[in-house]
């Protein structure tokens, strides 16, 4: 009897290379996160310094622009009503 068994192929993985790759990936991730933290700190510090050096604080600027927008809207509505045919 001729018994034919299919040969099973196995993948041989060099675990030392896999471990080395995992360590390097982890180290790269740590360096990346440290770099991102440093950049974020620098950007936030610059933003805070910019706001501190402003003549008018952002909250006051926003309030002034809001008042201007309301006044312009009110003036536009009054002008529209004054030129409407039914109002003359």
What is the element layout, followed by pairings?
Layout: H1 15-52, H2 58-82
Helix coverage percent of residues? over 70%
The shape, in one word, is: elongated
The succession of helices and strands, N to C, reads: HH
How many angstroms separate the termini? 114 Å
- In terms of per-residue confidence, which ranges show pLDDT below 50 for 5 or more consecutive residues? none
- What's the total count of β strands? 0
Question: Helix segment count?
Answer: 2
Mean of all residue-level pLDDT scores: 91
Radius of gyration from the alpha-carbon trace, in angstroms = 35 Å
Instruction: Profile the largest sheet.
Output: none
Structural class of the secondary structure composition? mainly alpha
DSSP strand content: under 5%
Structure overview:
The chain is an all-alpha fold and 88 residues long. The chain contains two helices and no strands. It has helices at residues 15-52, 58-82. The chain is elongated, with a radius of gyration of 35 Å.
């Amino acid at each position: 009897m001729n018994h034919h068994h299919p040969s099973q192929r196995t993948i041989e993985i060099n675990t030392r290379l896999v471990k080395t790759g995992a360590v390097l990936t982890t180290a790269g991730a740590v360096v990346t996160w440290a770099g991102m933290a440093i950049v974020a700190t620098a950007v936030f510090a610059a933003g805070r310094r910019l706001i501190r050096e402003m003549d008018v604080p952002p909250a006051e600027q926003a309030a002034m622009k809001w008042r201007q927008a309301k006044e312009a809207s009110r003036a536009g509505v009054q002008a529209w009503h004054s030129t409407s045919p039914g109002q003359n």
